[in-house]
Structures are given as structure tokens and as C-alpha cells.
Design brief:
The complex is a heterodimer of chains A (115) and B (111).
Chain A lengths: L4 E3 L2 E4 L5 E6 L6 E7 L5 E8 L2 E4 L8 E4 L6 E5 L8 E8 L9 E2 L3 E5 L1
Parallel strand pairs in A: 2-11
Antiparallel strand pairs in A: 1-3, 3-8, 4-5, 4-9, 5-6, 7-8, 9-10, 9-11
Chain B lengths: L3 E3 L4 E4 L4 E7 L6 E7 L6 E7 L2 E5 L2 E6 L4 E6 L8 E8 L7 E2 L3 E6 L1
Parallel strand pairs in B: 2-11
Antiparallel strand pairs in B: 1-3, 3-8, 4-5, 4-9, 6-7, 7-8, 9-10, 9-11
The chains are: A mainly beta (115), B mainly beta (111).
Chain lengths: 115, 111
């Protein structure tokens, strides 16, 4: 049973470019969460999505960041016009439907470096 | 003040020692408590998941939650060098809500 998959594992972008991070949840999981981990800091919540719906985006920066979880395909975290401060590890987590009541399982992360 | 406080360490212990890790929190609405282990440049791996106050044991790991004191602990018995990692506490108000993490404690178990 494959775990949470994220790609790419490493991404290098120059300032001003766009970054697209992908996350495929565990089989049977319908909830996806994105977290960011800056150097020397803990994980910070960004956004919580279900299929075709954003449930909680209270941790998302107001500009340049967006997320989606379409009916088909992986969840995408998109960062437009990246700046050096966006350099971090971005982790995706998934959890099963509410009726199964379980916690979040994390993927291996995407490490974004902005030059 | 951070919602979740965790001493970042680093903590260094000899192999076979009992390790005690802990977190304090300020939000009394937190109901679900987790401990994750994160190896360098890897994703967090779930170790323990508990609901409300009480103890939970799984092999060499024991998690304790004291909601009255807003304090949670993770004990590792017979620690091994392979336990060397960063340990993150996390908590949430609802079982499907966002997790709030502590900063993480860096643990090294030396042979």
C-alpha cells in the first residue's frame, strides 16, 4: 500500500518563476493538507483540501500561493513569482474520510530552493 | 507566546537510556495529540496518536497526555542509535483539522 507521494522531491527555481508541487494521497484518503517547514523551524500548516474544495486556507500567504485538489489527479500547491524566502521543505499529508477517524500521514516532501 | 512549546534540545543520551520528551500548549481546545519522528531530510513519520488525557503504549514508546496541565510527554525505553532523529509533537482540535506542531526536539542516541 503506497504511502503519500510527492513530486518532485527537489525543485530549483529562479526568483520570479513559478513552482508547482504535486501530492498524491494514500489510497482511500480523501483529505489533503499542505505544510511548510522553514530551516530551524517546525512545520506550519498552510491549507486543507478535500476533492474540489478548499476547507481551510488560514495558513496560506495571501498572495502568490494557491492550492487545488481536483476530482481527478493529484493535489497541486502553486507558488507564483517565487522569492528567496519561499525556499523551504513543503510537506503534504493525507487522512481518510471522516467516518474512519484517523490522523495525518506525511509524504517525503518537496525541497524548494529559490536562487 | 507560541501555541505549542517544545524544547529544541539537542538531547544526547547513551544507548539503553530512557528518553523523556515533552510539550506544553496553551489552547485548551486541543483534543488529539500526536508524536512524529523525522529523520534528516525525510518526511515526518507518525509514532503515537492519542485522544484526550491518558497513557498509550506501543512497544518501547509511551505517550502521556495531561490536559489539566496542558502537557504531553513521549517516553522511549531502551533507546537505540536508530532512534536518533527529530521528534515533533503535534495537536489538533478535531480529528480532521490542521495540526499545530512544536518546534521539534533533536535527539541523538550514541552507542
Amino acid at each position: 500500500n503506497a504511502g503519500v507521494m510527492q513530486n518532485p522531491r527537489h525543485l530549483v527555481r529562479r526568483r520570479g518563476q513559478e513552482a508547482r508541487l504535486r501530492c498524491s494521497p494514500m489510497k482511500g484518503h480523501s483529505h489533503v493538507y499542505w505544510y511548510r517547514q522553514l530551516p530551524e523551524e517546525g512545520l506550519k500548516f498552510m491549507v486543507y483540501l478535500q476533492k474540489e474544495n478548499i476547507i481551510d486556507e488560514s495558513g496560506m500567504p495571501k498572495e502568490r500561493f494557491s492550492a487545488e485538489f481536483p476530482k481527478e489527479g493529484p493535489s497541486i500547491l502553486r507558488i507564483q513569482q517565487v522569492v528567496r524566502g519561499d525556499s523551504a521543505a513543503y510537506f503534504c499529508a493525507s487522512s481518510p474520510p471522516l467516518s474512519k477517524g484517523d490522523t495525518q500521514y506525511f509524504g517525503p516532501g518537496t525541497r524548494l530552493t529559490v536562487l | 507566546q507560541k501555541e505549542v512549546e517544545q524544547d529544541p534540545g539537542p538531547l544526547s543520551v547513551p544507548e539503553g537510556a530512557i528518553v523523556s520528551l515533552n510539550c506544553t500548549y496553551s489552547n485548551s481546545a486541543f483534543q488529539y495529540f500526536m508524536w512524529y519522528r523525522q529523520y534528516s531530510r525525510k518526511g515526518p513519520e507518525l509514532l503515537m496518536y492519542t485522544y484526550s488525557s491518558g497513557n498509550k503504549e506501543d512497544g518501547r514508546f509511551t505517550a502521556q497526555v495531561d490536559k489539566s496541565s496542558k502537557y504531553i510527554s513521549l517516553f522511549i525505553r531502551d533507546s537505540q542509535p536508530s532512534d536518533s532523529a527529530t521528534y515533533l509533537c503535534a495537536m489538533t482540535v478535531s480529528s480532521y483539522g490542521k495540526l499545530t506542531f512544536g518546534q521539534g526536539t533533536i535527539l541523538t542516541v550514541h552507542p
